[in-house]
Amino acid sequence: MPLKVAALYQFAALPDFRALREPLRARCAELGLKGSVLLAHEGINGTVAGTADGIDAFVAELRHGPLFDGRLDNLELKFSEAVEMPFQRLKVRLKKEIVTLGDTTVDPTRRVGTYVDAADWNALIASPDTLVLDTRNAFEVAMGTFEGAVDPSIASFGQFREFAARRLDPLRHRKIAMFCTGGIRCEKASAYLLAHGFAEVYHLKGGILKYLEETPKQDSRWRGECFVFDERVALGHGLRERKSEGAAHD
After folding, report:
1. Could you tell me where the DSSP H helices lie in the chain?
2. Global confidence as pTM
3. Catalytic residue (choose from 28, 180, 186, 226)
4. Which residue in 28, 51, 66, 106 has the fewest CB atoms around it within 10 Å?
5. Which residues pair with 176 in a beta bridge?
6. pLDDT tens for residues 156-173?
7. CA pair distance 37, 93, nearest whole angstrom
8. How far apart are CA 138 and CA 152, in angstroms?
């Protein structure tokens, strides 16, 4: 039976994030989950795998359980499957940021770019006045990206600020559409650009994973595969694992 994989995040005020670590780790272990979860003052970010019942119970705990007491009521979630367990162990870590931009003044809970659903993404990026921007690392971009997207050629997300200062201009780039794997990097990047004078900033809601899940291959503007940070390495349309994708599309 395939395992269920949940990629999730939410920016939310968690001043007690240090105290949350051990009970969250214990609950994941109790449910037989493996993967990685990051906790910070600004929220939660993680990918975990387990049985369908285990994952469903974990998500219910985050959304409705006493541990977070309703603070994670707007989780961004993507589900996929794995033939084998894609993680070696369970890790629950404390961080300064749940995704590291290196500017703790950026607060996505206050202001972010305009969300664009997967169904509306093609029309937006086809517009000639839209700068399409891939916010991921260079090795991820090399595996796949959207047609015509700008590659910032960064080694880590923390270099995005340097790229923006060097290559982006609020007067020239009036309309920016950005994307990343699951959406979290764009939350930070769009908040950062808006704070630095960019007028129209859009980002793909749910990221590439949601687009690949919902967009028929024949209508897709995605080329290649989407790197994921687990042992599956990459996913294609329908969130199929790379190693079995050829057979799955026959």
Report:
1. 17-30, 52-64, 118-126, 138-143, 160-167, 184-195, 207-214, 242-248
2. 0.88
3. 180
4. 66
5. 131, 201
6. 999 999 999 999 999 999
7. 6
8. 7
